[in-house]
Amino acid sequence: METLNIGKYCVLGLSPMDDITDLPFRQLCKDFGADLLITEFIASEALNREAEKSYRKMRFTPSQHPIGIQIFGADEEELVRCVDIVEAQQPDFIDINWGCPVRKVAGKGAGSGILKDLPKMLHITEAVVRRAHLPVTVKTRLGYDADDKPIVELAERLQDVGIAALSIHGRTKTQMYQGNADWTLIGEVKNNPRMHIPIFGNGDIVTPQQAVEARQRYGVDGILIGRGAIGNPWVFEQTQRLMRGEDERPVSVQERVEVCRRHLLAAVEFKGEHTAMFEMRKHYGGYFKGLFDFKQFRIPLVNTTTLDQVLPILDRIAEHYR
Asked: Within 10 Å of residue 251's Cβ, how many Cβ atoms?
């Protein structure tokens, strides 16, 4: 299996997040400087059943290359079977999610739940690698809990079974998203002389300064930004500017409103008004973070249920802060 060649083009990636990193939001992040995109995670069983929602999650535009489709599951046969379905979409790579900590995933032995059974994790990963024609990558965590953080050795073993790149979230499964991400072990993986595949770091990167500092301090090949990008696609442009030694470009309230509107309209077109209106609530806080006296707009925004209701609110925000 070939190594994923990220050296020429990839420094900053958008970390996959369920109901967040859909096609419309990925496009915004790409337009604002994200080098690498990954879809929301998709259940292998749902793909094999040809579930419509799961197929929609795989969709992407030509401009979103390089992009990976992320799959998850605990059953080897199901994961291997869905490889052909994924490859038919012609992404640049297939990513296996061995990192999701939520109960409905990890509790079934998928995601980071498999960190309790590393032999099974390695066996399934190798089976997917053997089946795939595209590079296969893995996203995982440091380990299962504070007493079990095998990531340095695990990274070597994942490399040995043929993965093309590894992304590491600097927390354990039991931490969920609490506490601080530990980047020291991510750095140990990257600086292990036996490692030769690209290593991405992830966790607690919410500002451009943090992204630049983490890359310089730990030497990782790339940074994946997750929650810091929600409602904030500019984080990629601003980070790219800092990496080039330029000042960050300030973003006006009017630009925030316009991009939020663009995002909303694209989401409605992609997945329908009802779903889009609900999922966009997760982004509003990012789009308008830090604005003084914003409470008068926040409550109406999160309570709206139709496009006709929210568009005038966005107009009033732009006018109020002009």
From this structure: 16
Which of 243, 275, 305 represents a domain boundary (last residue)?
Answer: 243
Place of tokens 């006709």: 308
In angstroms, the CA 243 to CA 231 distance is 22
Q: Which of 10, 29, 82, 100 is catalytic?
A: 100
CA distance 249 to 223: 20
Residue 296 and residue 155 share a domain: no
Please check whether residue 91 is in contact with residue 35, taking contact to mean a CB–CB distance below 8 angstroms.
no
100 counts as catalytic:
yes
Classified as helix, coil or strand, 231 is coil
CA-to-CA distance for 55 and 10, rounded, in angstroms? 26
Strands in 99-177 per DSSP E: 136-141, 165-169
Residues 105 and 211 in one domain: yes
Structural domain of 24: 12-243
With beta carbons less than 8 A apart as the criterion, state whether 10 and 39 touch.
no
13-67 confidence digits (pLDDT tens)? 999 999 999 999 999 999 999 999 999 999 999 999 999 999 999 999 999 999 9
Give the model's confidence band at 11: pLDDT under 50 very low, under 70 low, under 90 confident, else very high: confident
Quick check: is 3 in a domain? no
Structural domain contains residue 32:
yes
Neighbours of 26 (CB within 10 A): 24
Number of compact structural domains in the chain? 2
Check whether residue 262 and residue 239 sit in a common domain: no
What was the pLDDT predicted at 248? 87
5 inside domain? no
pLDDT tens digits for range 175-184: 999 999 999 9
